[in-house]
Amino acid sequence: MTADSHPVLAEVTERVVARSAATRAAYLERIRTAAAQGPASGPGRGGLGCANLAHAVAACGPDKLALTATPARNLAIVTAYNDMLSAHQPFETYPEQIKRAAREAGGVAQVAGGVPAMCDGITQGRAGMELSLFSRDVIAMSTAVALSHDMFDGAVLLGVCDKIVPGLVIGALSFGHLPVLLAPAGPMTSGLPNKEKARVRQAFAAGEAGREELLDAESRSYHGPGTCTFFGTANSNQLLMEVMGLHLPGSSFVNPGTPLRDALTAETTRRALAAAGDPDRAMGAVVDERAVVNGVVALLATGGSTNHTMHLVAMAAAAGVQLTWDDFSDLSAVVPLLARIYPNGDADVNHFHAAGGMQLLIRELLGAGLLHDDVYTVDGPGLARYTREPFLDDGELVWREGPTESLDKSVLRGAADPFAPDGGLRVLHGNLGRSVVKTSAVGPEQRVVEAPAAVFDDQAELLAAFRAGELDGRDLVAVVRFQGPRANGMPELHTLTPALGVLQDRGQRVAVVTDGRMSGASGKVPAALHVTPEAAAGGPLGRIRDGDPVRLDTLTGTLTVLVDDGEFDAREPAAGPSGATEGTGRELFAAFRDAVGPADRGAAVVL
Among 87, 289, 328, 601, which has the minimal tally of Cβ within 10 Å of its Cβ? Predict the structure, then answer.
């Protein structure tokens, strides 16, 4: 099942290890010191004073004696539960499930804190979207606050969606001496087919469908508890957590509200308790250079969310691992595309799971030498453990070997028969800076687009031009600038896809170039995203003018404006929009906009 490492996997991993030598060593020393100084399990919670401990257990009811008079281990629950996000609503019942499982295993669990969880699907096109990316850093800090009470021997993190999982991971890695597991909630059951949802959205953008029809289609797509079923950032998060060894094997895509889902949550609790005090199973040991590279490979092999060219970089940095876009690019050249999940195909994640899911994906990549098996996971040593899938056998949770071949080759394939020989993401370089593009979602005829620029300083300008017919009948590269993290928090630009899709379907050659984001939901229209340096930081996008010929070439990996270098460099950059930075809480994030790093370094504030 496993094979010798592919030479490119080995080379990229070796340079990540070398590049990270100093920062990784410093991180490991920091968590070793924390482990030595932290309170041990047992009476009095180690070094805590009596007053400190009394505050911590005052409301613990039946668990008070276990925390004060016996050597019971104590788990922190950090939850992103709210009723507004379908993916997070199932977490309402998780704390009680976890507490019950902990008591049955002789331990204790306490809700240590909550973190915010906002939804890009709700805020798209609204001012609140400008808080979205920064919420990751708020979540990281909130997780650190929750774990800072010196009461805990391990943690269970409850989160699913876009910024929530990366934020939880970044925060928990500051406590990397503890064992930490993530307990997923699972995807909602399949609703309206994604292809039909996309058709109605595009018809609405073209004025061929009314709002009532659009709302009906959206409501039949997003219809119940669980993660949205397309392969956006939320489900990419789940894939990453499993292949990086922070989920139990096969637990990512089990639907909520099922006996198997509940059994996995209880087992996650037991594993976290059992791992307490084991340095091999501490979070900082699990998330090492090989685990990070495994995450990149799995993302590429499935055409996952472009957001993870930032989030995975930031999570790695929190563990002292220095990951770069060049690592993504070099791996993408050799990692085959094995999955077609919307927007890269018609299927959803439930279909992916049924076709063989994570077990077959990991089996195939290990067999091709494209994943590291020599990692330590929350399930134990070796990633090959993750080719097994969970089942209930007469009510008891057991694992058995998963499928050895795909049950639906329109959704999931083996490494010898991929959908494409290279990965679903590409990194572009050129005189417009560096960017990422999701190639798995566009047709071969769209891999290269050269057309005059149509320049906009925000997405509302582009949509107004579309509605006025100003974009009709011509090829164009829509340049949407001043959308980076320093400008306005780097909002998602979801609302552009239906309108530009209409133009593309009319036979126009269309592409997008932006320093903003379009997430895992990006597709159909080729889009060079996260252009770095961004326009607000003096990047070249600020010097593009309407009509400049722009070439987006995913075959050669280039993004260029075809203007004489001397003329282009001499241009005065645009001042940018004088848009609102107040209202909807945006004024509270001024310090974040000033401090945030570039997209290719994770667009991070706290690192």
Answer: 601
pLDDT at 467 over 50: yes
Residue 228 annotated in ligand binding:
yes
Q: For Cα atoms 515, 517, 522, give the angle at the middle one, nearest 5 degrees.
A: 125
Residues 221 and 206: their CA atoms lie apart, in Å, by 20
Residues 239 and 274 in one domain: yes
Q: How far apart are CA 488 and CA 468, in angstroms?
A: 26
My answer on whether 308 and 169 are in the same domain is yes
Helix 194-205 and helix 496-505, axial crossing angle in degrees, nearest 10: 80
List CB contacts of 581: < 8 A, sequence separation 6 or more.
488, 587, 590, 593
348 and 467 in a common domain: no
Task: Give dist(CA 233, CA 210) in Å, integer.
Answer: 29
43 pLDDT band (50/70/90 cuts)? Answer: very low
Cα torsion angle, 27, 30, 36, 38, sign: negative
What is the average per-residue pLDDT within 24-40? 88
- Residue 50 assigned to a binding site: no
**Structural domain count of the chain:** 4
The verdict on whether omega for the bond into residue 526 sits within 30 degrees of 0, i.e. cis, is no
Beta strands 433-438; 527-532: pairing state:
antiparallel
* DSSP per position, 320-345: T----HHHHHHHHTTS-B-B--TTSS
DSSP string, 336-386: -B-B--TTSSS--HHHHHHHTHHHHHHHHHHHTT-S----EETTEE-GGGG
Q: What is the pLDDT of residues 241-262, one digit of tens each?
A: 999 999 999 999 999 999 999 9
151-185 residue pLDDT tens: 899 999 999 999 999 999 999 999 999 999 999 99
Range of the domain at 141: 7-37+73-189+224-401
Q: Are 53 and 44 in contact (CB under 8 A)?
A: yes
Question: For residues 420 and 563, what is the distance between their CA atoms, to the nearest angstrom?
Answer: 33
> What percentage of the chain carries pLDDT values higher than 90?
72
User: What phi and psi values does residue 163 have, to the nearest 5 degrees?
Assistant: -90, -10
- Higher-scoring residue by pLDDT: 362, 60: 362
Helix H or strand E encompassing 167: helix 164-173
Is 470 domain-assigned?
A: yes
CB 514 within 8 A of CB 334: no
521-562 pLDDT tens trace? 566 789 999 999 999 999 999 999 999 999 999 999 999 999
Question: Which residues share a beta bridge with 435?
Answer: 428
Name the average pLDDT for the chain. 91
pLDDT of residue 535: 97
The answer to pTM > 0.90 is yes
Say whether both 247 and 294 belong to one domain. Answer: yes
Of 180, 202, 222, the residue at which a domain comes to its end is: 222
CB atoms within 10 A of CB 37: 11
